[in-house]
Design a protein that fits this description.
The protein is mainly alpha-helical. It contains 23 helices and no strands. Helices cover 76% and strands 0% of the residues.
């Protein structure tokens, strides 16, 4: 069944259906098949809203707006000119300037696409004119564009942090060193592949300093955004707002490359890109919900656990993946009902401590069924699931009203012998 839905997704993508709609259609099909029409339709808006119900995601449209402002304001053109004047006398100087400009623009916008489009439009014709190999030219621009994912601020990192509940600030900091290392490696490849080309004459220092002065305000943007997050002056979401306002100020009043007549197109492009990203998130949530119903994570992890050690027990190993999954589910239920996390951990460890693989697997299967029922929040749609799990629906804590102890949850769910 899992393979069937995977094949369905690949077929939809192969037919040219947008990713968001391919994921969403696969998810809706699975929900209708396994939950029935009424329950599935009731769940659709709940899952869609839940996938976007995160304050961190408000940073996404602001970073996209910032990148569109800088793109229309031709800040990338100035950055390429700066890198070219400082580096053109080196072996492969124009290629190095392209990669450096990509890295700086990526650090400013957080968008790989905007980076590749902006720098590529300037660099590709110039590099081809000076005799660089076409595969090297296209590869340098394409690889340089991917630096937007690593070098903060990064839109994909914001999405990842929102989905996995990771710290956006820590994710941003974790991308700095890999981003710099990748930049240096791409530069090394460009130098090696273009070592036979004639070097350009070095630019006079007056031109270099003039280019640096002209780009000072643009270069300060990543310093303000990343530095403010790292020092704790503002959050990543606040940094997005500050960066957007700063971009408007420098392009309107300092560089004077942006006009009021450009704003409608900028806002339109921002809305389209934001809607595309959020639609993919909703579609992925729906498809992931179906995989959860089919117990896809358990199906993938059980063979691995059995291969490692068929006789492992939670009490001796203490690290069984199924035990962790069970504990996480209990923790989620406990938080919903206002229980103390420490009490939940202690009770869970005691119950799981002496279980072998067979008992543990049965326990996890029952947990999965009860969790599906609990997450649906639909009493009518959950009765069958609870009945299959051997649980009583009347005593199960459907609301978030506090209960006396974790034992009450376990007794109500029928999970204790």
């Amino acid at each position: 069944m899992i393979a069937g839905f995977t094949i369905l997704l690949l077929v939809l993508l192969g037919l040219g259906l947008p990713v968001a709609f391919a994921l969403g259609l696969g998810g809706v099909s699975g929900m209708l098949a396994f939950m029935g029409g009424e329950s599935a339709l009731n769940q659709l808006p709940i899952l869609g809203y839940k996938s976007l119900d995160d304050f961190v995601l408000t940073a996404v449209p602001m970073y996209i707006l910032m990148s569109q402002i800088l793109l229309t304001g031709k800040v990338g053109n100035n950055l390429f000119d700066l890198a070219h004047k400082w580096l053109r006398h080196l072996p492969g100087g124009l290629g190095i300037a392209t990669v450096i400009a990509c890295a700086i623009f990526a650090a400013i916008t957080g968008s790989s696409v905007a980076c590749a489009v902006t720098i590529g439009a300037i660099a590709i014709p110039e590099m081809l004119k000076r005799g660089y190999d076409r595969p090297l030219v296209l590869g340098a621009v394409a690889a340089g564009g991917t630096l937007g994912i690593l070098i903060p601020p990064s839109i994909p990192m914001i999405l990842y942090g929102a989905i996995t509940d990771e710290s956006i600030g820590k994710l941003f900091m974790s991308g700095v060193v890999p981003g710099v290392m990748m930049t240096m490696m791409i530069m090394a490849i460009v130098v090696f592949r273009s070592r036979h080309l004639e070097r350009e004459a070095a630019a006079p220092w007056s031109e270099r300093m003039e280019a640096l002065r002209k780009n000072f305000w643009g270069l300060m943007l990543p310093v303000i955004v990343v530095g403010g997050i790292y020092t704790g002056v503002f959050t990543p979401t606040e940094a997005a707002g500050i960066g957007t306002i700063y971009s408007l100020v420098i392009t309107f009043f300092i560089y004077k490359t942006l006009k009021l007549s450009d704003l409608p197109e900028i806002l339109n492009d921002t809305i389209k890109t934001t809607c595309m990203i959020f639609a993919i998130m909703i579609g992925a949530t729906l498809f992931g919900f179906v995989l959860t119903i089919l117990d896809a994570p358990q199906a993938l992890t059980l063979p691995i656990l059995d291969e490692i050690d068929a006789d492992v027990t939670v009490g001796t190993a203490g690290s069984s993946l199924l035990a962790v999954q069970a504990a996480v589910k209990l923790l989620d239920w406990g938080v919903d009902t206002g229980l103390d996390p420490e009490e939940i951990r202690a009770a869970t460890a005691a119950w799981l401590g002496n279980m072998g693989n067979d008992a543990q697997t049965a326990f996890a299967d029952k947990l999965a069924l009860v969790d599906n029922a609990y997450q649906s929040l639909l009493k009518d749609g959950a009765e069958d699931l609870l009945s299959s799990a051997g649980c009583t629906d009347t005593a199960y804590p459907w609301s978030t009203e506090p209960v006396e102890s974790i034992e009450a949850i376990m007794d109500a769910a029928g999970l204790r012998s």
